[in-house]
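During the first year of the project, the team set up a workflow for recording each protein of interest as an amino acid sequence followed immediately by a discrete structure-token representation. This format lets reviewers and collaborators read both layers of information side by side without switching files. As required by the reporting guidelines, we include two representative entries from the current panel. The first entry is reproduced here exactly as it appears in our internal archive.
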Amino acid sequence: MTIFPVLSTKDQNGNEAYQNLSFIPCDDPDLQDYYCVDFSNVNSNKVNQPFLTYYPYDNQKQKLQVMMLYCTSQLEYPGTVCATHEETQKEIINFKTQVYTRVTSQQYNPTTRSFEKKIKLEQFYLSDTLVFLGKFSLKSTTTTINEGFIIQKQSSYTYISDYSKTNGYSTFTFQQTQNNLDIIGACFFYLDENGRNEFVQFVQFPSVLAQFVSVFNSLLVAGIINTTFYNKIKLLIFSKGGKIKKNDPKQVKIFKKLMDSSIDQINIYDIQKEILKLKMMVRMSFTVEQYAALQLCGLRIILDENIPNVEESILENIQMKEDLFKNTEEEGIKQKKEQSIEMELKLKENEVQVKQQEYQLNQIEQQVQKQQKLNQDNYLTENAENQERENIQHEENNLSKPQEKQNTKLEFEDNIFKLDEKNDQKFKKLNFKSIALNHLEKIERLERDNTYLEQKIDQFFNQKNFKTQLDQRILDCLIGYKQYKLDTQSFIPITKSCKINK
């Protein structure tokens, strides 16, 4: 049996060119009694680089073939006697005979900074009917190493790091017809399409310096924190000794004023009140018809010449409110009359009392005159003096009563005048409030009653002439109104007087 290696390379036309190689005893002590392929004719640096070349479009363009053939005199050395096929099949090609193939690969270990060798064993069985075909896809790895603490040194190595195997079988007849050789078995070796690149970087002086700088920065930050903490503790101890800086009262007052003003500005309740006031002012500035037409601004409106009048229900509501106002006014007038009658009765009673007091005063004067006549001789006596004093006091009391009468009369007239003024003010306020509430209620009704809204819109368009600028602006914002004035026949007549088209 003949075993020989062949390097096969395809040219541009796809034809294979063969280069015969040879076996030599393996130098590796782990591969004693084995023969290795001699690549000295192919690549001078057979240690660090693979002997095959990778082609991206055809990874089997260059491959190593180790073929096992029946012994022929053409391929053997001169003087070699070959056995016949029958003898070869009887002695070699059976289950007792096995073929072993060992593939050596390498792997770089950064810890030991050396290449570690790996040896894998593959086993094949020989058959007298089939030809075994073993295909080995070798994986190439390129390792780039940068080493040196201060001065960097770079080195690159390319080697076989691993492989994958595929087994195949063929018939003797097909192989003999295809290659014109009596093949027993063959192994094919080629580079895999997926390679690998490794970069190994050892520790440098800049990296060590960088680590030192990071440690230094950490210590510096810790020192700054400790210094700040020490200063705070020192100030705290100093303040406890009685040397505390007082806050400026002016700054405190200014700060409080700023806080109060900011709180007042952010008060949502006040903002809501202001918004409600503005809303009420806007509603009071428009009439009910204008506010209803304002809802149509920016919309297309189709008008009809026949505009109905206000419904009877609205007129009844207005009449009810007017009756209510008249009733309240009549009740106020009645109250005024009743109060004036009561005051007149009181005046009459006071006049009667005054007349009675005048009558009593006249009687007392007559008695005094009689007493004076009786006591003319004893004018300087004590009894006459005492009686005279009593009479004088009594007269003074009686004279003060008409003055009180006049005062009560004036007070009564003032009270009646003030009462009239108060009633007039109440009626004015009631009238104003009723008018304002009536207006706001009508506007609020526009938002919830569509029928009432349409009626007010009809009243707005039913005006013969629009006098105010506000009416004209509302008409300008209605889409289609000017077109209606130019050509009223372009609109579609409808039953309703006003309809909104979005």
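The second entry, processed by the same pipeline in the following quarter, appears below.
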Amino acid sequence: MGILEKIAEIEREISRTQKNKATEYHLGLLKAKLAKYRAQLLEPSKSAGAKGEGFDVMKSGDARVALIGFPSVGKSTFLSLMTSTESEAASYEFTTLTCIPAIVGE
């Protein structure tokens, strides 16, 4: 039984049920199930989501360091000063979006 059939069955059950104090709890449960199934129809399936691109860093040298922090605090500028690489730095957030491998002291 698919989601659409379940929604139709719950709607039929709601229409058949008399509305009074004794059936309020049952109707509330049915409405909650109905809302859950309708939300499942609207959201995309989790298995069909696109995966982000990853990257691999070869193990070499003595240590590996990652600069992680808030946007616009000078991580790219620090990387450019410590290494011979040129990392893009601008006055807006999220300028550097990729991994920039570099070696200190060259």
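For the second entry, the following points were noted during internal review. The chain has a mean pLDDT of 82. Residues 3-46 form one domain. Both points are flagged for discussion at the upcoming steering committee meeting.
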